[in-house]
Write a structure and sequence with these properties.
The protein is of the alpha/beta class. It folds into 2 domains: 117 residues, 2,3-Dihydroxybiphenyl 1,2-Dioxygenase, domain 1; 159 residues, 2,3-Dihydroxybiphenyl 1,2-Dioxygenase, domain 1. The chain is built from 6 helices and 17 strands. The radius of gyration is 18 Å and the shape is globular. The mean pLDDT is 96. It holds the Pfam family Glyoxalase. This is Catechol 2,3-dioxygenase-like lactoylglutathione lyase family enzyme. Belongs to the extradiol ring-cleavage dioxygenase family. Its cofactor is Fe(2+).
Amino acid sequence: MTNRLLTHLRHVDLAVPDYDKQLDFYAGVWGLTKVAEDSGISFLAAEGSPEQYIVRLRKAEEKRLDLISYGAANPADVDTLAEQLLAGGVQLISQPGKVDTPGGGYGFRFFDIDGRTIEVSADVEARRHRRIEEKESIPVRLSHVVLNSPNINATRAWYEQHLDFRLSDTMALPHMGEAMHFMRISNQHHSMAIASGPHTSLQHLSFEMRGIDEYMRGSGRVMRSGARKIWGPGRHMAGDNTFMYFLDPHGNTVEYTTELEKLDEDTWHPHIYDLTKPENADQWGTSNPMNEMVAKEMLNDVDRGVFVAPPV
């Protein structure tokens, strides 16, 4: 694929058994705004984002990742992508057509190499959003998503071949090889990262805050709520962004971040960072060490949605 057809990350959709508890967390403690709800499905927006919603929650018997949604510039690009994926042997879940969620639009769904449901859409009506004010400690937008894969190099190659993601940086361990690939679809250092793990699962969702002060104030609010903090505060080397990681009520890892690097795509060359050097995980040295306990939490549960499309 020579022409990049994806523009940005739109939203991530989660299914959970304890829907009310999950909704209370995201629409309360975490700082998102519920914009619509119907029969066990809720749509949550970030006040600083033009996206109609950045998280969808669905009540289900089993916890799973329902889908990850990306934007395209126009319906013609959606059609082009669908044709290219079909020609490349990718399994489509639906054909391009009307999107029946807040904001409407035109899109389709398909499975990635690991069986996750991916949605691409265009012509979604922009939500009326606003500037986040100083000391207002709520997310501005969805920053990125990180996925666990049992074969990160195959997953990386699939996203490069079919969706024109490009490699920004890699984290590695000398005795194990590549541990994480940071992938981009714009000058943002990464919209997605692929982490090595024993099974397919969601590693974490990251939400951008207005600045360092808002990031710390928001983190304090989440800590006071009783939610479990697993790693942070710190500043990563790859992406140069701040981090603070928590667990949501169903054990999904969620992150507050700021200042993710914007790079010059024409001149950028990927780095390989050695994870045995603590400064490559946290430049500041202020976080608790990345250890087996933190890594285990981020492996998450086996995703029950692999090659099973969500019902809505």
